[in-house]
Amino acid sequence: VRGHVELAEGEPSRLTLESRGEKVQVLGQAPQAAENQPMTREKVLKQLNKTGGSPFSFETLTAQIEGDLFLPVQALNELRRTGFQELEKKLTGARVLTGEGGIGAQSRSVPAKTAAPESQSVLTAFLEETAQLSPVLARGEISVVYLDADGFNPDQWRDIADRCHDRGKQCWLALPQIFRSHAQRYLGANRRLLCQAGFDGVLIRALEEAVWLKDLMEQENQKTSLPFGMDASVYGWNSRSAEVLASMGTSLLTMPWELNSREIEPVLGACRGLGMASELIIYGNAPMMVSAQCITNTVKGCTHKRGTLMMKDRTGALLPVKNHCSFCYNTIYNPAPLSLLGSEKLVGRLMPDRLRFQFTVEGTEQTEKVLDAFIGSFVYGRDVEAPFRDFTRGHFKRGVE
User: Fold this and answer.
1) Cα gap 379→375, rounded to integer Å
2) Whose CA is closest to 54, among 4, 123, 116, 101?
3) pLDDT-derived band of residue 3, with 50, 70 and 90 as boundaries?
4) pLDDT digits 0-9 by tens, 40-86
5) CA 115 → CA 59, 81, 108, distances in Å?
6) Which residues are within 8 A (CB) of 31 and not within 5 positions of it... i.e. 6 or more apart?
7) d(CA 378, CA 141)
8) What would the pLDDT profile of 150-160 be if each residue is shown by its tens digit?
9) Regarding beta strands 201-204 and 318-324, do their DSSP bridges make them parallel or antiparallel, or are they unpaired?
10) Cβ pair 361, 285 in contact under 8 A
């Protein structure tokens, strides 16, 4: 395929594709003026060149970029995907519908072992501890970093966002899972630091935070509001809920922990139809309970000290319990992490825009091991050994009864 992309502020992004005498042109999200790190021509071309398991590859690809612009990575992915879909329709015609051989049949074949994931999803990493930051920054394959608002102090936000930008990564702030007066006071007191940090977006983890964020941007007279996405805890269970969340201005929807692959598929389809990016968690200790009743306070009194305890359940298993003291709540985690190693082909067929590593209790060394294994498998197609003994598939294959 020969391709050319045109980007200009306030104008729809435009991608022109030509192959075998056929030509298509598709429009996508309009870029905005860059406030921090403008995207470079090289980065745009590199992202569009990630054709993954599609039947196409670029023979030539050029770009025309007018000014210092910003366009989310998922918008570039959607522009490429839409263009390829339209080009495939022109090239295959009725053969796709009739099931005859030729190009249409070839487009449905996938090599047994590819050098890149079928969907070429963007990799993201959610961090709750500062020890997890350095290994994530060192990996060029990771495009987006989420900082837990409790795990990283407000006076660190700008410095870490700058470090992410220097390495070509987006940096988002993840708000708390329980949004009460504690959260309003804490975030309100640090609202200037939030607005001045240079974050590329905000991850909403409780629905009322979306309203709070909108009010904050208006109070601070921000010219452009921060994009926000919904975490798994907001529960985009089905296509109807995806429509409602999109109507609120959501740019990203994370698949709930509880859905299996069959239930996830229509939600992902709804996201594509609504122009909303989708994200799937492929690794991480799932929250079993989020509670405003502090276990530390119950056992020995409030210490005002953030940390992780171990709680033994009736079977003798030790469950990590983390105190989120800035917002005064606890999270009890599953002791075995969710791992979708071995499900790479199924994940590739689902084609989520983003794949997330959810780091919670890991230290630096374990973070590095997880990144090595999952990036090796999902990105480079290598046979890898899981860096943990116990793990769970969660609800990915069985769902909730």
Assistant:
1) 5
2) 116
3) very high
4) 888 899 889 888 667 888 989 999 999 899 888 878 988 998 899 88
5) 18, 19, 18
6) 7, 8, 9, 10, 11, 13, 69, 70, 71
7) 11
8) 999 999 999 99
9) unpaired
10) yes
